[in-house]
Amino acid sequence: MLAIDVEKNGDVAIVRLNGRLVRGHEVRTLRSAVVAEKCSRIVVLDLSELESLDAGGLTTLLGLHHWAKSHGVQLKLVNPSRFVHEILLRTRLDHVFDISKLDHALYVLSGPNCQHARYAAAF
Asked: What CATH number does the domain containing 112 carry?
């Protein structure tokens, strides 16, 4: 199961993922949540609670990276879990994505005036 929480602060959207990003309903739900933020200048994917991902999840992240570039949106991956970080390193995707571990930046970006949206995918 994948749960997605979206917070907006101005032209920045923070998308927090919790669970597993695997082929099927989960990847479609993530894609829909990110594409819905097409008016944002920056979309931050918080991967700290992402337990696992498969090839479908990696393909979706790459697809979102390409979508963001073609729509003038900056896509940033933040706080990947140990497992996800290892997968990104082994597949050399750490050279493709903008990845950081800035916990406090998320706190600053998610100020008190954010709008919250929740998405859930059951698998």
From this structure: 3.30.750.24
> Does residue 62 register a pLDDT over 90?
yes
> How many domains does the structure of the chain reveal?
1
Q: What is the pLDDT at residue 116?
A: 53
Residues 6 or more apart whose CB falls under 8 angstroms from that of 68 comprise: 34, 43, 74, 75
Q: At what angle do helices 25-35 and 55-70 cross, to 10 degrees?
A: 20
Backbone angles phi, psi at 75, to 5 degrees: -105, 125
Q: What is the mean pLDDT of the chain?
A: 86
Q: pLDDT tens for residues 5-50?
A: 999 989 999 999 999 999 999 999 999 999 999 999 999 999 999 9
- Chain Cα centroid distance, residue 117: 14
What burial letters (b/e) apply to 4-32, b meaning 16+ CB within 10 Å? bbbbbbeebbbbbbbbbbbeeebbebbee
User: Which two structure tokens, joined as six digits, stand for 115?
Assistant: 């709008």
